[in-house]
User: Fold this.
Amino acid sequence: MLNEIFNECETKMKSGIEHMLKDFKTLRTGKVTTAVLDNVKIDYYGTPTPLDQVGSVIAQDATTIVVNPWEKNLLADIESAISAANVGATPNNDGEQIKLFFPAMTVEQRQESAKKMKGMGENAKVSIRNDRKNANDQIKKLEKDKEVTIDESKSAQDNIQKITDKFIAEIDSILKTKEAEILKV
Assistant:
């Protein structure tokens, strides 16, 4: 019973970190990645569709992304969706493809990205603390229903705290590494 709670808690905490890492991909670092366009949706025959499903999205070099739509009549829609998404570059439509030229990041932009990254890290920590609270509530319920003893409950809650501390430390380590990557000129 308690092992199920431990495993479920750990699984939820891992998914919190995975979600944070996925969010990090939308941040701009020194080198541009196609992930900055992940949240861009195109109105494709009435359905909001991710950009990478209506064309190829390629990082040509460290500062350029090229979007080649599979249907040329989507160029204007793609261009307006990218403009509306405010990704940090103005789309250039040449009639065949759209190119995004990202300027080199300024120190202020790097600091702003680092600030956003820390906010994402805090959200992940809150998620992990919520997972801890849910697990502890389940353990307290078992204790109240007399399915575990008080000592077992205390031991289980200590174990949940150790799991929580491990994941919080992992987040702090990831944040430190990512911050150094973002602020590196």
Remarks:
- The chain is about 55% helix and 15% strand.
- The chain has two domains: 2-26+106-183, 34-101.
